[in-house]
Amino acid sequence: MNNELKNKKTEIALFVTCLVDLFRPSVAFATIKLLKEYGYTVVVPKAQSCCGQPAYNSGDYEGAKKVASAVINEFDKYKNVIVPSGSCAGMMAKHYVDLFKDDPEFSKKSLIFSKKVQELISFLSKIPDRKKLHSNFKGTITYHDSCSSLREAGVKHQARELLQEIKGLKIKELKHTEVCCGFGGTFCVKYPQISERMVSEKVADAEASGAEILLSGDLGCLMNIAGRASREGKKIECRHVIEVMADMTSVSPIGKKMKREK
Amino acid sequence: MTVNPTSNNFKENAKKALADDNLQAALNNLKGGLISKRKEAIKRLPEFDAISTRAKNIKDEVFLDLDFYLEKFEKKTIEYGGVVHWAEDANDAKNIILELLKSINAKIMTKGKTLISEEIGLNEFLEENGIEPVETDLGEYIVQIAGEKPSHIIAPALHKTKENVADLFHEIHSPLGYKERQNSASALVAEARSVLRKRYLEADAGLTGANFLVAETGSTAIVTNEGNGDLTQSLPKMHIVLATIDKVVPTLEDVSTILRVLNPSATGQDMATYVTFSTGPKRRDDNAGPDQFHVVILDNGRSDLIGTDKQDVLRCIRCGACMNHCPVYGAVGGHAYGWVYPGPIGAALNPALIGIEKSHHLPNASTFCGRCEEVCPMQIPLPKIMRHWRNEEWKKKIPKYSVRLVLKLWLFLVLNPVLYRIVSSIFVRILSFFSPQKGYFSNLPFASGWTSVRDFPAPEGKSFLSQWEEEHDDNK
Within this chain, do residues A209 and A234 fall inside the same structural domain, yes or no? Predict the structure, then answer.
């Protein structure tokens, strides 16, 4: 029995993330497309919105717990929960456990749940005997390691290795690839000048890399970098890495002119 | 009271710092060097992670029995002829030191590098009382004669370029007979050394900090590269050590364990040039050394952290790696933080020492990128502790009412999925409707924090969930 058939038995629940839901549905469609190609069944649980980070990182632990328990209750019935963001995956797999450390009901629940949650790229890289990516994409890219993908989901080489399977794709690395882009959730609006310095340096690094496209696994970073590149009038395009992996790059890059349907 | 913090002006401080070309040049010169030196040093020590875990465990175990180890240290110190003084807060510590100095009619006191002295505002206090403190660590000396404060915990004058120092020395040292302006780093160091040599001999007392208080021997230890600490503590009649309660370790073996991670993390050295142990005053047969040996042990709010979710911050060994790797520190430098400890460790520690009301920006001015925690040799979860401070703030309702209101509304929506989908899809539709052809907004009134420095990418169109629902009417 080949793996595509084996995987068919495996159901995956997609946690879309609020940024993807609102600003970049293509990321979710690309994720579903690729997971289906690998033989998985993908479901999108209805009662989902946000992972709770805005409350958590604002120090509202009680609010965050409410969101977290809602997420756990909605997704608990699935064996695999895939998240196309290192940041939200880190929240769900790591910080929920911290939040509920002393909670009689959810301390165990959150621990079990944390084992089910996987960041998308990390998950893809671990699919056994996987067929190589066959995207028709052509171009030179650079990959931005989002801090939470890198440090919470442990994604670094996996993204590069997957991308290298795409024949027409060339990778050029950023000079300071492990340095934050200055997004940081509410940080970027609370301390815009410091954030500006950080993201300008990232945009400059991206330009210096010689790549045409910057890819990353987190939409927060991407909107920040794309927004700053646009403000500076830079040509570099930003996309979520899954768009390239799933060969769904017909949609305009983030923050660029949209090809409107209708 | 401690030195007055200006941490509540963090935003203004940061703005100034970003526009200060000289500071930016100084930051650029140094931060890259410290990062790569650390990396190289750790490459040479493959067992770094294992030693780091041992170092962390040493401190964690000490904190389970802190009083026991401190008392053991005191007992041993007394055994060797020293005196231990306990100071609950900054005022206690300052008064104890002043009384000690008065008892020998001291006029001049040399100082090795000590952050605690900055924390309690010792220099200003001594000056007011007619005693001249003389900083002997090169960086501290530069900062002192410039009338400034340190901007980095191991490189106090990191905010100054070599040219700044050359100008400063020329101005201050000219009246002392050093007429020529020196340009090379080595000539500047030689000039400072020559000026300071005389001061060591004039001093009545010498004060140093301590990297370690060793319980089993009653010794204090300092880690330096300039040898200034040795001259400070061994030439005058009295040696005063100023340290905090968290510096105690059980054994000399523990000191060597922690040293092995401290030096690579701080300066990229395998071992600092000098590690000096002081155990009591001069013995009867000794030719040199102080007649009196005093250790002032300060709490200043630290014991309140024991047993709390912020205790881990006490493991800090002041290597500075967190600030060297912090993108926020790298952008604004140390002075913007407005108090003694800058960077991530300051954001985690200062609220405990000066109160969250006076430092609320510090734990907020972080993207939680996690690089500080990654490089911390004592494995302090710095972002987590900063988040705990945000939690304290939240509970005390320190964030602006408007911020709390927005978050409450958001929470209400998020917890009501059906309403959330309706509201969010309307929001996206409106945003899409108004979105310019170019694909981004240059200005959004409700997100001016964002659009003041970057464009706002327009949404693709309809929200994903509403599209999915249309396609999968009967979806579970």
Answer: yes
Q: Which of A76, A91, A125 is the last residue of a domain?
A: A125
Q: Is residue A130 part of a domain?
A: no
Residues from chain A that touch B395, judged by Cβ atoms under 8 A, are 59
Instruction: Tell me the whole-structure pTM to 2 decimals.
Output: 0.95
B463: tokens are 């929200």
A258 within domain boundaries: no
The answer to whether B453 faces chain A, any CB pair under 8 Å, is yes
Are residues A52 and A107 located together in one domain of the fold?
Answer: yes
- Say yes or no to pLDDT of A241 above 70: yes
Encode pLDDT of B111-143 as tens digits. Answer: 999 999 999 999 999 999 999 999 999 999 999
ipTM of predicted complex: 0.94
> What's the rounded Cα separation, in Å, for the pair B293 and B306?
29
Residues A201 and B113: their CA atoms lie apart, in Å, by: 34
Q: Is A259 a domain residue?
A: no
**Per-residue model confidence as pLDDT tens digits over A199-213:** 999 999 999 999 999
Same domain, A66 and A91: yes
CB distance A38 to A7 below 8 Å: yes
Q: Which of B374, B420, B462 sits opposite A151 (nearest CB)?
A: B374
Tell which CATH classification among 1.10.287.130, 1.20.1250.20, 3.40.50.10420, 1.10.238.10 matches the domain B15-129+203-304.
Answer: 3.40.50.10420
Contact A44 B390 (CB under 8 A): no
Judged on CB neighbours under 10 Å (0-12, 13-18, 19+), B438 is middle
CB A203 within 8 A of CB A226: no
Q: Where in the sequence is the domain holding A224, given as residue range(s)? A: 139-245
Alpha carbon distance B35, A175 (integer Å) = 14
DSSP B280-336: SS--TT-SSS-SEEEEEEE-TTGGGGTTSTTGGGGG-----HHHHT-HHHHHH-SGG
Minimal Cα distance from A254: which residue of B? B457
